[in-house]
Design brief:
By secondary structure, this protein is α/β, with parallel strands linked by helices. Helix content is about 45%, strand content about 15%. The chain is built from 9 helices and 7 strands, in the order E-H-E-H-E-H-H-E-H-E-H-E-H-H-H-E. The longest helix has 28 residues, at about 100-130. 2-hydroxyethylsulfonic acid binds near residues 139, 141, 188 and 189.
Length: about 240
């Protein structure tokens, strides 16, 4: 790869907001490393983008997988200038706290906050060298409590605190943005409900309007497209009705 396009890493890139973000960034002139656990699911996405998308296996809950990410990048893909921390889930969520094993709740924390920290830590040297940009996908659940979603809210409030503090730590050296979406229509809810399509359909149908993954990808691109003296700190994004 010899072109001068800037390089971004997107986690959780195999579907939903992650895949839409890969599409948007490649379309806007980035080369994108699309990272997710299931590399087979990244192949179709990568095939759409030819040389401008590199699929790579990444399990953010696996310390070795995250820590080795920079070394696993091929030459020409190592000067990462942006990281979009999108990997996250709410498996078992929308359930009263006592009704599920605590391990389920801790698994949400493990992916949504520990995973985000692992990948950010691994890529921090490259991002600092590039005077780069971290974009964390938070949630409205990071500033407002949602009923029966205590672990998810805890994880997203943590993402909000992590993002705010990281922005201070790296002021002048690296930009940090948090995007906080309201309800986005993806496979997120079906995964949350262990594949129950009908329950997911009912959940999204309860909202008059839902955001689409492309709406959030456009917000990521907006944040990344600002001139160097502008930091989009937080974007709270809601469906219009
Ligand atoms: C999105 C949370 O409950 O709107 O982060 O699907 S929910």
């Amino acid at each position: 790869m010899t072109d001068e396009r800037p390089i971004a890493v997107v986690t959780g890139a195999s579907a939903g907001i992650g895949a839409a973000t890969v599409d948007a960034l490649v379309g806007a002139g980035w080369n994108v490393i699309a990272a997710a656990r299931r590399i087979d699911r990244l192949q179709e996405l990568a095939a759409r983008h030819g040389d401008h998308c590199l699929p790579i296996a990444l399990d953010v809950t696996d310390a070795a997988s995250a820590a080795s990410l920079p070394q696993r990048l091929p030459e020409g893909w190592r000067a990462v200038a942006a990281l979009v921390n999108n990997a996250g889930h709410d498996i078992g969520g929308k359930t009263p706290f006592e009704e599920r094993p605590v391990a389920d709740w801790i698994a949400i924390i493990e992916t949504n906050i520990s995973g985000m920290m692992r990948v950010t830590h691994a890529l921090a040297p490259a991002l600092l060298a590039a005077r780069g940009h971290v974009v964390n996908i938070g949630s409205i659940a990071g500033v407002t409590a949602l009923a029966n979603d205590s672990a998810y809210c805890a994880s997203k409030f943590a993402v909000n605190g992590f993002s705010k503090a990281l922005r201070l730590d790296y002021s002048g050296r690296m930009r940090v943005t948090e995007i906080l979406p309201g309800v986005v229509e993806t496979e997120f809810d079906r995964v949350r409900r262990h594949g129950d399509d009908e329950a997911a359909r009912r959940f999204y149908a309860a909202f008059a309007r839902r955001l689409q993954p492309e709406d959030i990808a456009a917000c990521v691109l907006f944040a990344l497209s600002q001139p160097a003296h502008v930091t989009i700190a937080e974007l709270l994004v809601m469906p219009s009705a």
